[in-house]
Amino acid sequence: MAPPAIIAPSILSADFAALGKACSDTIDNGASWLHIDIMDGHFVPNMTFGAPVVSKIRPHVQRPTSAYGTGTFDCHMMIAEPKKWVKDFQKAGCDLYCLHYEAAITSTAAENPADHSESRTSPEEMIRYVHEQRMLAGIAIKPETPVDVLWDILDNTKKEEVPDMVLVMTVHPGFGGQKFMASELPKVKALRDRYPNLNIEVDGGLSETTVDQAAEAGANVIVAGSAVFGGKDPAEVIAKLRSAVETRR
Q: What pTM, to 2 d.p., does this model score?
């Protein structure tokens, strides 16, 4: 049986003029986590917000009392230098730091925003570093990245270098409101078949009309932005997303 359903609305679709209240209301409406999209204008062609915004919304949502618990801030780091920002986001209130595989194989080992380093990092080193900063670690892949690049990472015997979650993008990262790419679901199924207890997240184009496909493939962590924040009844949307996953576990 797959892990329990986790519904993580993306605050990229929330009302930025009242972001703190939007976050607390979303948890009150039944969300498990909040998905926070961090974009730097380099790794993806869009910019969103940084650690100062995360620190401002953190007081509006109670910290989780256990790993993966309600109120988890799931920070999706669509940035070119993910290691540089780990400490800042930990201090800001991030609970799960999800870096991109594609960034981890090309970025430097610098540990602070102002630092420079000639040394390169790796996905395993990054995951270990996130764990050392007392956060859960996730690893994400873009649509153009084959899922088998993750096998060695997930099969690593060094548990501190194994991610706590895998994110399969079902759109090209960078902008909200894109059309769901069902072509990415075989990656989800391959992950679920190999790792039945893994938290597998899908992000992009998820709604009441597409969640069934994702859940059938084996996803248990559902990111939905406009479907939740643009819905007439966000609580009902969250409940339907959760039910779609739970009935297929």
A: 0.97
